[in-house]
């Protein structure tokens, strides 16, 4: 009996609700079934994102800048929906059911995309070569059906991405030494899976879309997601399930609401009069920053009844630890804000850079590289940079006084630096391409200039991505409070989302400023008629300014304090201090 008890996982249950048995649940088998959903999601997402502008420009006949904005708005919305998926998983659904439901929505989205791109009635007629390639832009019905399919897919993406990594780590017991090491390996394999899915998307699926048909490419994605969902369901009896700690977003709102409701209440003369949860295993010490939030922990006459109830209403009274957790998250916001700009630069690789490649020579012998497949050079540089860092640079660090290697903030700074160089290189490459376009005529479909001229911008953004992705993710998770690691991941994902939205906003501003009062539109209807090099130069300058702001914020940032166990002599004062009556 004792031996059987040793095999039980203390904080997890099986599908029947009983304590999970280590021998029959969780582990690598269960994690592999979950990773199957992730690789199919990544495969579909990147196949859609990197090749979206070529369909919008070449088939739907949208203007260059409009196509770019459709692409970045879709990506931004999808990543923002990850927050919704996380709230649903933590508050109403479990991670398991969130993955199941949203995998089905995801497959429906790709299926509708296959129908939308396959039916002739849902796309405009081809351009007329007899009239200087005059093109008819897609009408509202055609764009409406396509957009509906696109955002239905994005909804599914948000639900999957918010839960799949967390449910994967649930399959390992952090209190077991062996499984804790396996959990660390899971993150490495998870990132590897993401890159494998991306490579397959920008090579195999993009080629199928361009050479066989869009509907075939999207149909393959839909079938793959359905198959992975059924495989995921087959592991129901093998998974470990953990109780949701509750949505961190709700916890933050509770502190804010409680502080606002008590905004007219005076602070107690002694901070020991602030409420602290006696059942809290680990506590955070009180700090003097953002003292307005401390009002949420002030005990008033209306809260006197908590002595009779161990669980006061969290919308009117919050513990000091809960308040300090919100303060900790607030301290991350300056770093959060200064990392958004990188993802605005990153957005150009799947939008304007692909449009550049569409107008250039891309042949290697008899094989023509699809324009969206140039992203393979970015993915390759990410994987190569990570390999060089882990295999060559880290061994050198271990011989110094910094065996841990670069800090998270240093990695983020490097990523921002490489984005500046990437945009400068992109501006020079576009100057060369435009000079050829003016010589050969802006209506020339394929310019006599090699598409490999674009490699520096793809490679440099990839190097920056390798540093900033790992640095951001690790920073926001490790610096977030113990009970709010999920919101730390959410903060990271929102930087990507807002960066993509930022690209759309910047495009609209540039179009409105440069295209009015007789000005020369930098982002014209056709890319050859504009000055994309100026736009890239603007991004380089904005990124340089942003790097300066980041360095100031990084220098002023102080790592968050750790949690401490309460002393046995600690007592929670639940009496109402004489001067602390509610105003």
Main beta sheet: strand number and arrangement?
2 strands, antiparallel
Contiguous helical run count: 17
Mean pLDDT: 83
Shape: globular
If classified by CATH, what would the architecture of the domain at 15-241 be? Up-down Bundle
Q: From the alpha-carbon coordinates, what is the Rg to the nearest angstrom?
A: 27 Å
Q: Looking at this structure, what is the CATH superfamily of the domain at 15-241? A: MFS general substrate transporter like domains
The total strand number stands at 6
N-to-C SSE series?
Answer: HEEHHHHHHHHHHHEEEHHEHHH
The computed structural class is: mainly alpha
Q: Terminal Cα separation, in Å?
A: 59 Å
Multimeric state: single chain
CATH class of the domain at 15-241 equals Mainly Alpha
Unreliable stretches covering 5 or more consecutive residues: 1-6, 568-583
Helical content (DSSP H or I, runs of 4+): 55-70%
What portion of residues belong to β-strands? under 5%
Strand order of the largest sheet: 1-2
CATH topology of the domain at 15-241: Growth Hormone, Chain: A
GO molecular function: transmembrane transporter activity
Region (Disordered): 564-583
Transmembrane segments: 28-58, 70-89, 95-115, 186-209, 215-233, 329-349, 369-389, 409-429, 449-469, 490-514, 534-554
Membrane topology: Multi-pass membrane protein
């Amino acid at each position: 009996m004792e031996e059987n008890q040793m095999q039980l996982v203390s904080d997890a249950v099986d599908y029947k609700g009983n304590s999970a048995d280590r021998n029959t649940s969780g582990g690598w088998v269960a994690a592999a079934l979950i990773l199957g959903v992730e690789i199919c999601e990544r495969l579909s997402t990147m196949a859609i994102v990197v090749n979206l502008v070529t369909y919008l420009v070449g088939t739907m006949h949208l203007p260059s800048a409009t196509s770019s904005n459709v692409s970045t708005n879709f990506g931004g919305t999808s990543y923002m929906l990850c927050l919704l998926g996380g709230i649903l998983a933590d508050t109403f659904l479990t991670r398991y059911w969130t993955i199941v439901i949203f995998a089905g929505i995801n497959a429906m989205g790709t299926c509708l995309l296959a129908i939308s791109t396959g039916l002739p009635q849902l796309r405009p007629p081809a351009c007329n070569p007899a009239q200087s390639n005059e093109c008819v832009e897609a009408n509202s019905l055609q764009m409406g059906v396509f957009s509906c399919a696109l955002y239905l897919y994005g909804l599914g993406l948000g639900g999957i991405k918010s839960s799949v990594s967390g449910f994967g780590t649930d399959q390992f017991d952090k209190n077991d030494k062996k499984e804790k090491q396996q959990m660390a390996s899971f993150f490495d394999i998870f990132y590897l899976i993401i890159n494998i899915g991306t490579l397959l998307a920008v090579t195999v699926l993009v080629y199928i879309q361009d050479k066989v048909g869009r509907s075939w490419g999207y149909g393959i994605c839909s079938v793959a997601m359905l198959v992975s969902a059924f495989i995921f369901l087959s592991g129901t009896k093998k998974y470990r399930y953990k109780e949701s700690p509750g949505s961190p977003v709700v916890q933050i709102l509770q502190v804010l609401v409680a502080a606002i409701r008590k905004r007219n209440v005076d602070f107690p003369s002694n901070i020991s009069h602030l409420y602290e949860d006696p059942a809290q295993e680990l506590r955070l010490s009180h700090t003097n920053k953002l003292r307005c939030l401390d009002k949420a922990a002030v005990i008033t006459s209306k809260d006197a009844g908590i002595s009779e109830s161990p669980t006061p209403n969290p919308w009117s009274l919050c513990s000091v630890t809960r308040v300090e957790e919100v303060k900790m998250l607030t301290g991350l916001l300056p770093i959060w804000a200064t990392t958004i700009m990188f993802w605005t630069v990153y957005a150009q690789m799947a939008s304007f850079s692909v449009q550049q490649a569409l107008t250039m020579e891309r042949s290697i012998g008899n094989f023509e590289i699809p324009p969206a497949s140039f992203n393979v050079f970015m993915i390759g540089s990410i994987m190569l940079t990570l390999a060089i860092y882990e295999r060559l640079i880290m061994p050198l660090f271990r011989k110094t006084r910094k065996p841990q290697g670069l800090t998270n903030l240093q990695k983020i700074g490097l990523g921002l630096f490489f984005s500046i160089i990437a945009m400068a290189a992109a501006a020079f490459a576009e100057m060369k391409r435009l000079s050829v376009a003016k010589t050969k005529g802006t209506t020339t479909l394929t310019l006599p200039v090699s598409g490999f001229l674009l490699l520096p911008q793809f490679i440099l953004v990839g190097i920056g991505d390798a540093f900033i992705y790992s640095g951001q993710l690790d920073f926001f998770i490790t610096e977030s409070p113990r009970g709010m690691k999920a919101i730390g991941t959410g903060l990271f994902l929102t930087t990507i989302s807002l960066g993509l939205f930022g690209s759309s906003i910047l495009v609209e501003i540039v179009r409105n400023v440069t295209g009015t009062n007789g000005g020369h539109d930098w982002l014209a209807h056709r890319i050859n008629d504009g000055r994309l090099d100026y736009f890239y130069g603007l991004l380089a300058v904005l990124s340089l300014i942003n790097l300066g702001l980041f360095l100031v914020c990084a220098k002023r940032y102080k790592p968050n304090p750790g949690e401490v166990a309460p002393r046995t002599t600690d007592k929670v004062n639940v009496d109402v201090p004489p001067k602390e009556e509610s105003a």
